[in-house]
Amino acid sequence: MKKPSDKISASFTIFFMILLSTACKDSKENNMQSRPKGPMPAPIIIDEKKRSITFSARVNGKYLLEPSRHLSVFEEGSNGKKSIFTGLVDHTAFYNALVKIGAKPGDNMTMDNKEKTFVSGDTLEATVTWDGAKKQYRLDEVVKESNRKPILLKFGGNLKLATEKNTGCLICLDSCPVGIVSNASYPYGAVEKRNEVTFIGNKDLLPPDGTYVSITMKLKEK
Q1: Model's pTM, two decimal places?
Q2: Residues 98, 27: one domain?
Q3: Claim to verify: residue 80 and residue 124 sit in the same structural domain
Q4: Are residues 214 and 191 in the same domain?
Q5: By three-state DSSP, how is residue 150 classified?
């Protein structure tokens, strides 16, 4: 005949096994959700003839559900988890690639004038695509802008500050003194400080969290 203590011990063992099994299942599901999807692409490709660069990133599913002022940030920067597309190229390589295709930086923004200045520099056109996409999508197709104003990307430059701050910011969605490229349609602070506009990834079009995408930046002809 089993003692009461034996029954308690057996019940505890069964409970622990169920708990362990559930935890392992949850861990596996979480790992699957965050695992990059598709083959690892080249971080950046430069096409001097077409005056364009293409860099690789991953969809950050968080910003298909809530807004962000960051279009793309290098994954190892301090803001690496804050953008719609997590970049696989760092700010220096991104800057140098733009220079190589003939883009000229504006370098007109500072930490002192940032909220009163619109970013300048050569204009860039951006498109996004991924494995299985029907086409190269325009930025205004993959990103919802609450005011429906055009996203006007300028090569701000800012390499010195970008290196000092190490935020990893590649493309910001309002004018920025740190981001290599940013949106001249709004001054700094329009998104997070003054709530003038929101930007959010188009969940009805973009692929799932973790999917690799290719972002092409083409120098706009003057």
Answers
A1: 0.83
A2: no
A3: yes
A4: yes
A5: coil
Q: Tell me: the pLDDT tens digits for 161-211? A: 999 999 999 999 999 999 999 999 999 999 999 999 999 999 999 999 999
Return the HEC string of 17-64: HHHHHHHHHHHHHHHHHHCCECCCCCCEEEECCCCEEEEEEEECHHHH
Q: Are residues 11 and 91 in the same domain?
A: no
Phi, psi of 212, rounded to the nearest 5 degrees = -70, 140
Neighbours of 99 (CB within 10 A): 13
- The b-or-e profile of 132-141 (16+ CB within 10 A means b, else e) is ebeeebebee
**Rounded Cα gap, residues 54 and 69, in angstroms:** 21
Same domain? 52 vs 119: yes
Enclosing domain of residue 27: 1-35
Radius of gyration of the chain (CA): 22
125: helix, coil or strand? Answer: strand
